[in-house]
Amino acid sequence: MSKELTKQIYAIMNREMSDIGGFIVKKQCMLIGSDPNDIEPPDLPKLASNLSEVMRTFGGYEKARKIYSEIKKLENLDQVAAGEKSEVKRNKMLEDLGMTCIFSAEWDKAFEYFNKLLAAARASNNQPEVSQYLRRLGFIHQERSEFDQALDYYEQALEAAEESGEAKSIGQACNMIGGIYWNKGNYELAGQYQERAIEFALKVDDKKILGSAHIGLGNIHSDSHEMKEAIGHYQEALKYLKETDEVYEISRAYNNLGDTYLQLADWEKALVQFDKCREYGEKGGWMNMMAWAEFNSSEALIHLGKLDKAKKNLDGSFDILMRIGDKVGIGGIYQNYGRLYAARKDWPKMEEYNKKAIEVFMEINTPISLAEVYEEYGLALKQKGEVEQAKSELRRAANLYLHLELEKQLKRVMKEIENC
User: Fold this and answer.
1) Domain 125-243 is in which class?
2) Residue 342 has what pLDDT?
3) Residue 196 DSSP SS3
4) Cβ contacts of 162 within 8 Å, gap of 6 or more
5) Is the pLDDT of residue 125 over 80?
6) CB contact burial 78-92 (16+ within 10 A = b; e otherwise)
7) 3-state SS of the chain: helix, strand, coil percent to 5?
8) pLDDT (tens digit, 9 = 90+) per residue, 265-274?
């Protein structure tokens, strides 16, 4: 039976992902410790979770939901979990199924799984597990961009973790709260919670939390244009993460480090980091990180005068991110197309792509990215000779930097306006 099940899993992924479907199944089987040539029913909750996460990354919630639906036709996954005699393993299966529902946007079912696990943990007064399942419930809201609701669950998770005195749970909750405050633009509180996450992660030498918290601090400093501090935190993150199997997080840290070197105009160092980002993205099968490495490297290539190579990278990564539905990445690609066409002095296309980037960043409400596009658009218009329109775009950038309390960026833009 397991051999037939194995064939069916491969057939599902091959239908959906063509020539890379088999590779994805093998990769995820290896990551969960399952035999890729002999998949058994008890493997399915975790494998379904991993495959759904990958498919959501590649093609969005609909793609993940389709894969999950196909796998559920092969086995009754709830029965597979119910048939597990070990309570620990059974709860892990239910958690995996809950995560699968998150990745495939089956929100009600995800709430059902984690509320069931939460109730059992509360009944046994297992505060570390209570904290864990509250974090999962918060993550559901975070995935839906319901940041206030997510924060409420994460704060409850921190309270339960503090009651248990378990340092790891406290560190995890603080890390997630810090991420929410970063999304909400409250860098002061975000930094405080990430520092606290590090404090408790160090007590138990949890390198995953340490890596994630240092990435969080790096992001805060990068957004605040404090590049030396940002680089230090990304390098600390890599030091810890490279002792784990968290290839996605390693890839993410390299991408963010490369972006920091871009802001410092150190193009060669930026390209080195993006090569590493691509390497680890490929190692983990994460096409989104491979695409981010490609399109981010194009900015360095544009400044180095390698315009044809830059366009090739942009075109390739655009196709991937459109399939994934990664709007942040798509906005960044439009921004880089704007830079490319400004370098070529193709002014109609420069304007077209900057306006597309502005539209995307307004839609997804990322004010820092929006300010940066306004600034670059204004500078390109100034180069073109459209002085009044350039001033208008630069003022938009200045207003956003003022609102975000980013003093260095504000001074830089005001100087450009004065020199128009």
Assistant:
1) mainly alpha
2) 95
3) helix
4) 170
5) yes
6) eebbeebeeeeebbb
7) 85, 0, 15
8) 999 999 999 9
Token pair of 125 as six digits: 């007064």
pLDDT higher for 95 or 284? Answer: 95
Q: H-type helices in 124-226, by residue range?
A: 127-143, 147-164, 167-183, 187-204, 207-223
Q: How many CA atoms lie within 13 A of 229 on its CB side?
A: 12
Residue 128 in contact with residue 109, Cβ under 8 Å?
Answer: no
Mean pLDDT of all residues in 13-25: 84
Tokens, residue 327: 């709007």
Q: Is 70 exceeded by the pLDDT of residue 325?
A: no
Distance (Å, rounded) from C-alpha 170 to C-alpha 36?
A: 36
The C-alpha atoms of residue 401 and residue 409 are separated, in whole angstroms, by: 6
Q: Which of 209, 281, 291 is nearest to 250 (CA)?
A: 281
pTM (two decimals) = 0.78
**Fold: same for 125-243 and 245-313:** yes
- Quick check: 213 and 241 in contact, CB under 8 A? no
CATH 1.25.40.10 fits 326-420, yes or no: yes
Instruction: Give the pLDDT confidence of 287-316 residue by residue, as tens digits.
Output: 778 888 998 999 999 999 999 999 999 998
Over the stretch 380-410, which tens digit does the pLDDT of each residue have?
Answer: 999 999 999 999 999 999 999 888 777 888 9
Nearest to 100 by CA among 66, 147, 149: 66
What is the rounded average pLDDT for all residues in the chain?
Answer: 91
- Is a pLDDT exceeding 60 seen at residue 1? no
* Cα gap 168→407, rounded to integer Å: 36
Token pair of 85 as six digits: 């005699």
For 245-313, the fitting CATH number among 1.10.10, 3.30.2310, 1.20.120, 1.25.40 is 1.25.40
Residue 77 to residue 113: CA distance in whole angstroms? 12
The tens digit of pLDDT for each residue in 353-380 reads 999 999 988 887 778 889 999 999 999 9
Q: Is the pLDDT of residue 219 over 60?
A: yes
Q: Which of 136, 66, 127 is nearest to 96 (CA)?
A: 136
**If you search the block for the tokens 């969960």, which residue do you land on?**
32
**Per-domain residue ranges for the chain?**
1-107, 125-243, 245-313, 326-420
Q: Is the CB of residue 213 less than 8 Å from the CB of residue 198? A: yes
